[in-house]
Amino acid sequence: MNKTLISIVGPTAIGKTALSIKLANHFNTEILSTDSRQFFKEMQIGTAAPTPEELAAAKHHFIHHKSITDTYNVGAFEKDAIHVLNTLFKTHDTVIMVGGSGLYVDAVTKGLDDFPEVASHIRESLNKDLATKGLSHLQEQLMQLDTVAYNSIAIDNPHRVIRALEICIGTGKPYSSFLKKGKLKRPFKTITVGLTAERSTIYDRINKRVDIMMQEGLLDEVKSLISFKKLNALNTVGYKELFNYLNAEWTLDFAVSEIKKNTRRFAKRQLTWFKKNDETLWFDFMTPKEVIINQINQKIS
User: Where, in this chain's numbering, is substrate bound (predicted)?
Assistant: First the structure.
């Protein structure tokens, strides 16, 4: 256990990328991204991916390494990330990991939960229900079958809702009952650093970030992807709302306001997820990097 993974978590727009680069430079190491939408090279602006300058400031892994047309999931990411970590730990004592996708963070630090196989026709039936009855119908079904899962998963993500429901229906047991069983022991120590702020500050930073994204050309980025809008990768805040505008269902002002609202909801869910880890070192987002580094070094030693 002489190798250390420093995992930086927190809500969107809080400053995780900037801190990860500072820490990577201080520890002379590299960065793994666990932002599941920054994997896709076609999604630059709407995912707030690191800029070319930020990518040049420290070596990054899992940024824009996939296409939205590729099949890629958390299980594949876990295998890829552990392979990269094993390679990096041969020459580095410390590696930085950063991102706001809680399931992907946990896949690396704890390993994935072990779910039983269920009949494929259950998922097919749920996908039909999604197409004919809508996501809200599936959400209500999950709330009845597994309140814990309903309150903890990304409830606006149809893929996650269907996954939870197929386990509930296929096993007759709550999806949440299979969580946190048989976690793997990793051959490295993980120190988790969380960035946070008052909720009003987080929301203000989110609103400003969305305005900046629009100024930087988010609408044009979404226009270029409209022929792929049914792909799961694009069922993402910032994209799905602008697809509604481009389909003449919403005004642009309303679409932008919905991006802000849905991003704020996402940030709230992120905090709920990350607060479950009692060992996280939480810092206000304005905390000087020297203070954070000092506490990390105390943990390492």
Answer: 12-17
Topology, domain 4-112+181-300: Rossmann fold (3.40.50)
User: Is residue 14 a known part of a binding site?
Assistant: yes
**29 annotated binding-site participant:** no
Give yes or no for residue 182 having a pLDDT over 80: no
> What is the predicted pLDDT for the residue at 34?
97
Pick the CATH number of 120-178 from 2.60.120.10, 1.25.10.10, 1.10.20.140, 2.60.200.20: 1.10.20.140
Per-domain residue ranges of the chain: 4-112+181-300, 120-178
17 annotated ligand binder: yes
Q: Where are the alpha helices (DSSP H) in the chain?
A: 16-26, 52-57, 74-88, 102-109, 120-133, 135-145, 147-150, 158-171, 199-216, 218-223, 240-246, 252-274, 289-300
Residue 11 marked in a binding site? yes
- pLDDT per position as a tens digit, 150-179: 988 888 889 889 999 999 999 999 998 887
Q: What is the mean pLDDT of the chain?
A: 94
Tell me the per-residue pLDDT of 107-122, one tens digit each, with 9 for 90 and over: 999 998 778 888 889 9
The residue count of the chain comes to 301
Answer yes or no: is 12 a known binding residue. yes
